[in-house]
Prior knowledge:
- This protein is mainly β.
- 0% of the residues lie in helices and 70% in strands.
- The strands form two sheets. Strands 1, 3, 4, 5, 6 and 9 form a six-stranded antiparallel β-sheet that branches. Strands 2-8-7 form a three-stranded antiparallel β-sheet, with no helix packed on it.
Amino acid sequence: MACEKSTFTGSTTSTGITPVEIFRYTPTTDATVDLDIKCISREIDASTSALWNKRACIKNQSGTTNLVSSVVDVITARKDAGASTWVITGSIDGTDVVLTGTGGLGQSIQWLVCAEALEFLTG
C-alpha cells in the first residue's frame, strides 16, 4: 500500500469557440486518485478572467481509467461578464483524464491549469 502526491501545471492558448485541450493526466495503473484541478483563464489584451476549481475521484483498474463519480465543483465558477460563455469540460480518453477549455467568439484566451493528484496504490 502506498500514497503518492504529484502536482502538475500547464498552460495553453485558445482562439474563438474552438475547444482546446488544456490538461491531460494518466493515472498510475491500479490506483485510485483524488484529482483536484484549478484553472485560471484570462483574455489576451483584455481584463476578462475566470476561475474554476474541480475535483474528481478516478480509478485505473488494470489499465482502464474511469470516474468513480461525477466531477464536482469545489467552488462555483467565478467569471467576469465577458467570460460568461467560457467552459471547461472533463472526459476520459483511453487511460487519460482530459480537460478541455472553450473560450468565446472572437476572444483569444490563455488557460493556466494547476492540478494535484493524490494516488492511492494497493499491493
